[in-house]
Amino acid sequence: MSGAPVKFRSRQSISQVEEGNDLAPSFDDRGLITVVTTDAYSGELLMQGYMNAEALGLTIKTGEAHYWSRSRQVLWHKGATSGFVQNVRELLVDDDQDCIWLRVDVEGGASCHVGFRSCFYRRVPVGEDFDKQQDDGHIDLVWTDTEKVFDPEEVYGDAPNPTIL
Amino acid sequence: MSGAPVKFRSRQSISQVEEGNDLAPSFDDRGLITVVTTDAYSGELLMQGYMNAEALGLTIKTGEAHYWSRSRQVLWHKGATSGFVQNVRELLVDDDQDCIWLRVDVEGGASCHVGFRSCFYRRVPVGEDFDKQQDDGHIDLVWTDTEKVFDPEEVYGDAPNPTIL
Fold it and tell me: Are B141 and A12 in contact (CB < 8 Å)?
């Protein structure tokens, strides 16, 4: 890792942002950019999170995913507690540069604090399946993964649950 | 399509939200939930958007992706202008139910207003590749797709570009 810090360009024009070569990310009024993280091999969506400028710079420099934890309000080196570090195989940016896509390889194979491989382990019935399920409008989720790959209590101990109601 | 409107449960407890069968989505202070949309076959990330409660309900009812357009501040039936309707093959929700994953089949194959198949057509060099590229910290994006599948001017005409600087 060289000593050069990562620098972002300022946003000048739509053509620069959409069809140029400058990395000129848009951080929102909280200083955050949305991040989508998929498994580089299976294509499965593992998690959706946020980065501030520091987390994005560290991810680019180190090749390991860093996020901003909104619930804990800290820079979050993913895997620092659980060991499930995300090695970035590819980092892409979208057309208007307000979203980052990480394609990662996860050491140990888990990305979800509940204990599952992916955070997305429940399906919502759609269209005809919605109609078939019931008639009062409320929806029963359908589980797509029921096997936890680790025990959250063993890994996180007494750390507060990050889910906010 | 039956007449029953889609109803969401209120959020009562962490166990209900994370490990229950209730669909009890969390909408943020703008009334929006984050949406990640991937190609159901290739696994490629097509776009990242937002839904309000109405858009989520319509997506569930109709099986076609509806979003909330933040730049235009309107309910947005994806493909209504361009013809590139997204048929939802699977709709999943994450652990704390503040993110929706759509796995879609796109009629016509395009999801990006710039004209590309995916909104993510540029790569950021990471780790050693970052170090190799330059030494002043600024980053040159690397194009991963250069072939537009449609001409935005023909499809959208004089409609304002949704990108906000």
Answer: no
Select the residue of B12, B19, B126 nearest A114 (Cβ to Cβ).
Answer: B19
Interface mutation vs chain B, best among A17, A36, A61, most B CBs within 10 Å: A36
The answer to whether A138 contacts B7, with C-beta atoms less than 8 Å apart, is yes
Residue with tokens 């901003």: A68
CA–CA separation, B83 and B91 (whole Å): 21
Q: A95 and B119 in contact by Cβ < 8 A?
A: yes
Secondary element (H or E) of residue A35: strand A33-39
Does the reported pTM lie above 0.90? no
User: Cα–Cα distance between B124 and B77 in angstroms, integer?
Assistant: 31
The whole-number pLDDT of residue A26 equals 96
Nearest Cα to Cα of residue A5 among B124, B140, B138, B142: B138
Q: Which residue has the higher pLDDT, A137 or B47?
A: B47
Q: Which residues does residue A100 pair with via DSSP β-bridges, in sequence order?
A: A35, A93
Per-residue pLDDT tens digits for A117-148 = 888 999 999 988 888 887 787 888 999 988 88
Q: Are B133 and B139 a contacting pair, CB within 8 Å? A: yes
Query: Tens digits of per-residue pLDDT, A11-53?
Result: 999 999 999 999 999 999 999 999 999 999 888 899 999 999 9
Is residue B91 predicted with pLDDT exceeding 90? yes
* B59 with A126: Cβ contact below 8 A: yes
Q: What is the predicted ipTM?
A: 0.85
* Interface residue of A19, A94, A131, A164 to substitute, partner B, most B CBs within 10 Å: A94
